[in-house]
Design goal:
The complex is a heterotrimer of chains A (361), B (187) and C (277). Chain A has 361 residues and is of the alpha/beta class. In chain A, 42% of the residues lie in helices and 20% in strands. Chain A has helices at residues 3-7, 20-30, 46-58, 68-80, 91-107, 133-137, 155-172, 182-186, 228-246, 266-281, 299-306, 322-330, 349-360; strands at residues 15-19, 35-38, 61-64, 85-89, 111-117, 148-150, 175-181, 188-192, 218-219, 250-253, 260-263, 286-291, 293-295, 311-316, 335-340. In chain A, the strands form three sheets. Chain A has a seven-stranded mixed sheet with strand order 3-2-4-5-7-6-13, with helices on both faces. In chain A, strands 10-12-11-14-15 form a five-stranded mixed sheet, sandwiched between helices. A two-stranded antiparallel ribbon of chain A has the order 1-8. Chain A is globular, with a radius of gyration of 20 Å. By secondary structure, chain B is α/β, with parallel strands linked by helices. Chain B has one domain (2-182): Pyruvate-ferredoxin Oxidoreductase, domain 3 (3-Layer(aba) Sandwich), CATH 3.40.920.10. Chain B contains six helices and six strands; from the N terminus they run E-H-E-E-E-H-E-E-H-H-H-H. A six-stranded mixed sheet of chain B has the order 2-3-1-4-5-6, sandwiched between helices. In chain B, helix 3 crosses helix 4 (130-141). Chain C has one domain (26-270): Rossmann fold. Residues 258-277 of chain C have low confidence and may be disordered. Classes of the chains: A alpha/beta (361), B alpha/beta (187), C alpha/beta (277). Chains in contact: A-B, A-C. At the A-C interface, helix 4, helix 5 and strand 9 of A face strand 1, strand 2, helix 3 and helix 5 of C. Strand 9 (218-219) of chain A pairs parallel with strand 2 of chain C.
Chain lengths: 361, 187, 277
């Protein structure tokens, strides 16, 4: 589905100037967040700080865990009871959570995980990056699995996509990752802090609530007998195929007559949109395609686009991660150029504009 | 029309508060706006800065590129940021802490000097409203935001526990404005 | 003539043979836990957390809701469950590698937060399922597949004493170390498990029971020799006893604990769930 159908509904009410991290947290609260478990790490600290005060007002549970490893396993435990649960972190903390995310995927438990990306590798720095694209879209931990990955690009989308993430998680019984970065987390923008549509209520007839007048239930990812493990993986594959068909979201601008289309997500797409606007003013036929779901990448829309433009330019805040996916989708007949800067650096509008000019000739 | 404002000083001078107020005022005035603070490993000390972008159309990049206006409260920030200001742009500097002789952009950037720290001390008896004096100076030098909207926004957003500071702050903003309006234009 | 049933399978245990090695102790420990579930009537709201280790197949044996935890994370998972739904009765069942090595951080912090969860801890001084490697509780000098010359305290540190350590946390309501080497010890163990259940049922904090048991296969001993090893070696390093009891004297759930039938001890020898039909 195209983003415009989902994200930019007519909104009423008052907008607030809100920090991205707070918008994300409030989006979760309004989606009916029951429990939050987390551990401090910059640049996402406003999420736990806000929720530690907000959840007691709604009857929700807030726990500051002893580590991200504990956070994600608390998430797993709470999710298994049928609660709406989330955690948030950044770089090193998300790495530490990968064990639990793999278990959540294998257990088919719904939850929401926000990664407010900071530059790596290692301790890296607290500057923004998109260096976790591959970790996020490939699953990140051990095994053949995927999380659904949503990439907001504004405070409004930090709210809206987090709200939506809970519905997606429950619908597909799958972890959903919000992949944002330090800029989106720290930046303040006006946003409507009321959801565009009500949350879904999905019956969780798998939840562990005690075997009260029903057979005992078990949640696990270990299957030792026969081909059970292989079957689980086919089940997961079928689910991911369904997800790929049903939920791709994207936004495109100025692509109808474009010779060159810039492909970028999140903050990189914001930067690219400024460059595209400047290029248009100079009379260059340039457009912008912004994937909102990174898993699944909106492949059909991208393929259709690739079939009618001369060249794509991928812009990322890394050294080329989504680039490989775009190349694979676009096929050999379309040139795919790249501009990116790795963790610690952020591409400038000027750099992107220069790259556009270099590639449109 | 897009205006990119950089606000900078040392930690504790209220730079982030000033940026937040500018951003809220822009929103109240019906403009599109982004506010990007610095965030760091230390709570205090060092330099603090933030960027507010105001525009009559949706804003693309929220990242500071070349500011149209730089409001600068101390020398260190002045030295660091004056080379970045857009040609034809403007620097509003706190003359109590910035040496006019260190200005190197004569001819392509307009320099507005206002003794923000002194104004704060004169009006409130304390230096804590330096940021408000500098904001007043900015409002006098650039007309994107109206004084009325800024006053209204401050009134609506000041923490109730700090309401005693409302009137002194409003006065300081006006005094900062007056300091620029009455002074001869500098180049 | 009426026949009175004096011994049977607890309702909370499934009617299946276990895959545990004969004489290992898991069978008895499972049974005691199941008896407590039945006794306190919590089967309909119980969730058991299985560790990585021999008891990972907990769901096959317990007729209650169960979840499998990543290695060492059982008490973090339990925290999530109990916080999300305080009405659940949450118990973890963990080995020494799980609870005292890879999961030590989660164990300590769950104890420190005083989560009202019941933790059943099986200490057999070795990694059972992976093939007899050194555990945090391996005895000094004990040969394992990764300490072929015996555990050297200077090199590998001394065995970690969990029951004592857990007793130091304000959030722990009950901590006891028990063994299963004879019927008397099994009865004691049963009482300890019941007490650790009461801690949760009274919302007093973590209930912790450390159960000394032999891993016969990795000790390469017959079950009777292995029990002797528990008495002579394991108990010498890990003294049995109540290390903390912060429960109110008369707890809400206190009911006279029925004496365990003597025959329960028989399960120690066969190692599988005993039931007389």
């Amino acid at each position: 589905m195209n983003a415009t159908a989902v994200m930019t509904q007519e909104r009423t009410g008052k907008r607030a100037l809100v920090q991205g991290n707070i918008a994300l947290a409030e989006g979760a609260v309004q989606a009916g967040l029951d429990c939050y478990f987390g551990y401090p790490i910059t640049p996402q600290n406003q999420v736990p700080e806000y929720l530690s005060a907000r959840l007691p007002e709604t009857g929700g549970v807030f726990v500051q865990a002893e580590s991200e490893l504990a956070s994600i396993n608390m998430v797993l435990g709470a999710a298994a009871t049928g609660a709406r649960v989330m955690t948030s972190s950044s770089g090193p903390g998300i790495s530490l959570m990968q064990e639990g995310i793999s278990f959540l995927a294998g257990d088919q438990l719904p939850c929401v995980i926000a990664n407010i990306m900071r530059s790596g590798p290692g301790l890296g720095g607290i500057k923004p990056t998109q260096g976790d694209y591959l970790q996020a879209t490939r699953g990140g931990g051990h095994g053949d699995y995927h999380t659904i990955v949503l990439a907001p690009a504004s405070a409004q989308e930090m709210f809206d996509l987090t709200h939506k993430a809970f519905d997606l998680a429950d619908t597909y019984r799958n972890p959903v990752l919000i992949l944002a970065d330090a800029i989106l987390g720290q930046m303040k923008e006006p946003a409507y802090l009321e959801p565009a549509y009500p949350r879904l209520e999905i019956k969780k007839d798998w939840a562990l609530t005690g075997a009260d007048n029903r057979p005992a239930r078990n949640i696990r990812s270990m299957y030792l007998e026969g081909d059970d493990q292989e079957q689980l993986n086919y089940t997961l594959r079928d689910k991911y195929d369904k997800i790929k068909k049903e939920i791709p979201m994207w936004e495109s601008a100025d692509t109808d007559d474009a010779d060159l289309v810039v492909v970028a997500f999140g903050t990189a797409a914001r930067i690219a949109s400024s460059a595209v606007r400047m290029a248009r003013i100079e009379g260059l036929r340039v457009g912008l395609f912004r994937p909102i779901t990174l898993f699944p990448l909106p492949e059909d829309a991208l393929r259709e686009l690739a079939s009618r433009v001369k060249r794509l330019l991928v812009v990322e805040m890394n050294l080329g991660q989504m680039l490989h996916d775009v190349r694979a989708v676009a096929g050999a007949d379309v040139d795919v150029a790249f501009h990116g800067r790795p963790g610690g650096g952020v591409p400038t509008v000027r750099e992107v504009l220069d790259k556009i000019k270099e590639n449109i000739a | 029309m897009q205006t990119e404002v950089l606000l900078a000083g040392f930690g504790g001078q209220g730079v982030l508060f000033m940026g937040d107020l500018v951003a809220r005022s822009a929103m109240a005035q019906g403009l599109h706006v982004t506010y990007m603070p610095t965030y760091g490993v230390a709570m205090r000390g060092g330099t603090a800065n933030c960027v507010v972008i105001m525009s009559d159309e949706p804003i693309g990049s929220p990242v500071m590129d070349t500011p149209d206006i730089a409001v600068i409260l101390n020398q260190q920030s002045f030295d660091k940021f004056q080379p970045l200001v857009k040609k034809g742009g403007m620097i509003v500097a706190n003359s109590a802490m910035v040496d006019a002789d260190s200005f190197t952009r004569e001819g392509d950037v307009r320099l507005v000097m206002a003794p923000a720290t002194d104004i704060s001390r004169e009006v409130t008896g304390r230096e804590q409203s330096t940021n408000m004096a500098a904001l007043g100076a900015m409002l006098a030098a650039d007309t994107t935001l109206s004084l009325e909207i800024v006053e209204e926004t401050l009134r609506a957003n000041l923490d109730p526990s700090k309401h005693a500071l409302l009137e002194p702050n409003l006065k300081t903003i006006r005094a900062g404005m007056a300091a620029v309006t009455s002074a001869a234009p500098t180049s | 003539m009426t026949v009175k049933k004096v011994f049977g399978r607890p309702e909370s245990l499934c009617d299946v043979p276990t895959l545990y090695c004969g004489g290992c102790g898991h069978g008895v420990a499972h049974r005691l836990t199941a008896e407590a579930i039945d006794h306190f009537g919590v089967r309909s709201r119980a969730v058991g957390i299985a560790p990585a280790g021999c008891s990972v197949l907990l769901y096959k044996y317990f007729d209650v809701d169960t979840i499998e935890s990543a290695h060492g994370r059982a008490l973090a998972v339990g925290t999530g469950m109990k916080r999300a739904n305080p009405d659940l009765f949450v118990f973890s069942y963990q080995g020494d590698g799980d609870l005292a090595s890879i999961g030590m951080c989660e164990t300590i912090h769950t104890a420190n937060r005083g989560e009202s969860i019941t933790a059943i801890f099986i200490n057999n001084a070795v990694y059972g399922m992976t093939g007899g490697q050194m555990a945090p509780t391996t005895l000094p000098g004990q040969r394992t597949t990764t300490t072929p010359a015996g555990r050297c305290v200077e090199r590998e540190g001394a065995p970690i004493k969990m029951a004592e350590m857990m007793a130091t946390f304000d959030g722990v309501a009950y901590s006891e170390r028990v063994a299963l080497y004879d019927p008397r010890q099994i009865r004691r163990a049963r009482k300890a498990v019941f007490r650790a259940f009461e801690a949760q049922l009274n919302n007093c904090g973590l209930g912790f029971v450390e159960i000394l048991a032999p891993c016969v296969t990795n000790l390469k001993m017959t079950p009777d020799k292995a029990q002797q090893w528990v008495v002579e070696e394991l108990c010498a390093t890990f003294p049995l006893g109540v290390y903390k009891d912060a429960l109110p004297k008369e707890t809400n759930e206190s009911k006279p604990v029925p004496a365990a039938p003597e025959r329960a001890g028989a399960t120690a020898e066969c190692g599988s769930v005993a039931h007389a039909d």
